[in-house]
Amino acid sequence: MKSYISIEEIVKRKHFDHIEVVAGALGLDRLVKWVHVVEVVQIKNLLRGHELILTTGLGFKDDPSLFVQFVKQLIDCEAAGLCIEIGTNTSTIPPDVIEIANTHQFPIIVFNQEVPFVEITQDIHSTLINKQYQVISDLEHYSQQLNKKLLEISEYDEILTFCQMYLDVQVVARFNEKDLKFYPEPPKGRRKQLYKLAEEAAMDKQSKVAKQPVMLLGNQYAEVMIISKDRDLTEYDFLILDRTVTALAQQLLRTMYVEERKNAEESQWMLDWLEGSHREAVIDEHLASLEPGLKLNGAVVCVCKYQPARHGADTDCTYLKLWIRTVFEQYGFHLFTIDVRQDLVLILGNKRAGDDWKERAKEAFERVRAQEGTGGKSVSSYRFGVGKYIYQLEDVNVSYKTAREALLLTNRAHHKEMSMFYDDLHLYRILSVIHQHANLDEIVSDYLAPVIEYDKRYNGQLLETLKAYLTCSGSKQETAKRLFIVRQTLYHRIEKLEKLLGSDFMEAEKRLALEFMLLAKDYLNVEEQLQKRTV
Any coiled-coil ranges, and where (predicted)? Predict the structure, then answer.
């Protein structure tokens, strides 16, 4: 199970018959990755850790200060130990060196007779290479067994149990925001210790704890830890953990895919829910059948339009839904999805408190837009409309209707930074109502026609100036800066506006009306462009 060899094992091999452990005897269990012969003092940049150093002491000879400096470097570089041939260049081990080595449990081994360093390195390196080959062979055997199990098992618990039995360690898993799961289940007293170890592992790397995230479609879905009680974990343990996590991700993805397909079969029930046909008791009963104990503190509906990355491409909607689901679950939402008229409709059931749902939803939408996951690669862009947040699940139809309206309004908006949330579309909602029940073009013309006609006739920029002047709350200095014109030119344009709109156009009520009409004009311009595209 380990590709390294301990110093304790090495000193039992040939060429180590006439040795003496003069310091650091408590560190003989240190693992050795490789063996180096070193005859210089400055070696800090040459070591990577766990090396056994062989030397005759040529670099420091009988200079105690250089000897101390040399040993400190080895300790800082996490070398495994030091073997010195006495007699050739070094006659004694200084007391300071012995004290430092004992303090750090750093083994110093003395050869009392001349030994062939080349044969020692050849012997140990052969052993290490054979061990590494055996590790690769064992790892391949584990992977084959795991792949066979993937064809037979139906629950991820079996994968984690198999890993625990194979390594004989404690396996701990955390799925999303749920509590830790232990394999095997420990006694109550031991659970507290394992909780503590798991928390400490999150803060600092430990030799007896290893952890690895389970990534699904670009997002962390779970985390698996292995905790050893008696021994330090080896590279082999880390490799087994990696193979286990990969198999676990495959199993979870397969399970989620099957669940998503099952959800698609329930689309008729979902359609009835969106239309307001289900009462609260029926909804609660259905949710309990999907996930026992599921408690939602309200919900909000989102309508999503997405553009395939390639024109005419058939996007795999199942994986797209899986990816979006993994994102939103990270932010405390239970996701229901359904396809309605070539749109993807998401019902975001809120599992947490209702106060911060919008902030969490915004972060989730940003991650979806960033296209971090596998599902995003087949999609070039998204547009979302988010409806009213409802506290009673039977009112989902209200949220759905307002989500549709929000999507329509954002499509007609003249700027891209407009909010996707229906509750934030204050003036646009008023514009939509006016446009449905009155001639909005005529109302806009009543207020802005003189300015529009002037610009057409003289190729002027009065409408742009009016918009900037109102945006800057009547500040001439800020308006001039925004329009990149001198103040004298601005004064001339304002005089023209006063002649066309009246000298009172900056008074409260009239100013508010003009601002609203400018927004309405942009709204109508975008709608006109959309109609031309449709034709």
Answer: none
Regarding whether 486 and 363 lie in a shared domain, the answer is no
Residues 315, 277 share a domain:
yes
CA gap 458, 443 in Å, rounded? 24
Q: Note the pTM of the prediction, 2 decimals.
A: 0.46
Helices (H) and strands (E) in the chain, counts: 18, 15
Which structure tokens are listed for 507? Answer: 């008074």
User: What whole-number distance in Å separates Cα of residue 224 and Cα of residue 175?
Assistant: 9
Tell me the C-alpha to C-alpha distance, in Å, between residue 510 and each of 165, 424, 466, 470, 514: 79, 24, 13, 11, 6
Residue 319's pLDDT is what? 72
Cβ burial of 181 (10 Å; 0-12, 13-18, 19+) is middle
Burial string for 115-154 (b: 16+ CB within 10 Å, else e) reads bebeebbebbeebbeebbeebeebeeebbeebeeeeeebe
Distance of alpha carbon 319 from its chain centroid, rounded? Answer: 18
**How do beta strands 343-350 and 333-340 pair?**
antiparallel
Q: Which residue shows structure tokens 């792949």? A: 147
In a domain, 506, yes or no: yes
Residues 6+ apart with CB under 8 A from 353: 297
Among 437, 459, 450, 428, smallest CA distance to 524 is for 428
Answer whether 61's CB lies under 8 Å from 90's CB.
yes
pLDDT, one tens digit per residue, over 472-513 is 988 989 999 988 999 899 999 999 998 888 888 888 888 888
* 382 and 477 assigned to the same domain: no
Position 28, amino acid:
L
End-to-end CA distance of the chain: 70
SS3 352: coil
Question: At residue 162, does pLDDT exceed 80?
Answer: yes
3-class state of residue 17 by DSSP: coil
How many structural domains compose the chain? 4
Looking at per-residue pLDDT, the higher value among 87 and 200 belongs to 87
